[in-house]
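Checklist before submission:
- one chain only
- standard amino acids only
- sequence pasted in full

Submission:
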Amino acid sequence: MGDGVDIRDQFDITENYTYLNTAATSPLPRYVVSEVESFLDSHARYAEGAWDLWVEKVNLARARCAALIGCRPEEVSFLKNTGEGLNTICSMLPGKGNVVTTNMEFPSNFLPWRRKYADLRVVDLGAGEVSPDDFERLIDDDTEAVSFSEITYRTGARLPTREISEIAHEHGAIVVSDAVQALGAVRVDVGELGIDVLCCGSHKWLMSPFGVGMFHISLELMDRYDPPFIGWFSLEDDEDFSLGNTRLASSARRFEIGNLNYPGIMGLSRSVEVMMGRGTDVIDDEVTILSEYLMERLQDNGYGVVTPNGAHGGIVSFRAKDPDTLVKRLLKERIVVSCRGDVRVSTHFWNNKDDIDTLIDALGGA
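Returned file contents:
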């Protein structure tokens, strides 16, 4: 945070739980809560009188989020969540060719494509690290989009996005990234990775409120598609309410149809500010060190780790005889993890090795 404050001290949840479940929902740090409360206070005290300040803060948030993912502010809009972003891009595509996705997607990155595309091609990620060859076999010149998670929600495997993007672009397909299990935990640069569209909610690794999500679309693609929904805020001149004003914004703001989740956006903005100050590479390293320590400790205690070595983020999944019962038992001991087929543990940069040791002690031997 730049002021010598221990980041862990910002998380009140540590007083009540050993919390290892960021992949489901992140607890809010105090500095994010403070930012949200500041907006609510201004709404209560000034209402429309604070409008210009709110717009200024939204523009600042847009710039910060753009810096986080390596794009221009004009290429970022704020929607409600990852699923809304994925539905937005899906609805704009022609629907005449095929789409390639994987068998490890959360429903939000499967259902929209399944509904629209008769030819939906599914890569079986299997176990271990993912090979770009698995995608190359299914992508052809009729592929309209290749849509996949940067990090899978069940196993925590990190996909080789850059290599997949190169294959997709060779065939004229766009690359759609579901980054909700990656952004905030690992470094994601849309230019370096060849991502055309990025969708990401903020309530997980971005440690921000529910109901606000980041939607990135490159300027090169923006004019190719018509937004599925439009409203007054989609307009280039959003202060002209005459019925003759129909020109859409030349930026990604065209996807924002009305009033936004201002408290959520400002909370997200503050969280991103802290992350950028700490350094995305630093956070990436911190998350990796913790997850690898967890994998080692699990294996030393006889547990089969599902997450592949080398290519992963903050999610570590392991096998148990009765995962659901185990997760419930741990909760009674005030240790929070998830059941996603296997037992899923997710450690963010504010966690520490003591949290992991507490979990291992509670698990005992396999």
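Reviewer check: The longest strand covers residues 143-149.
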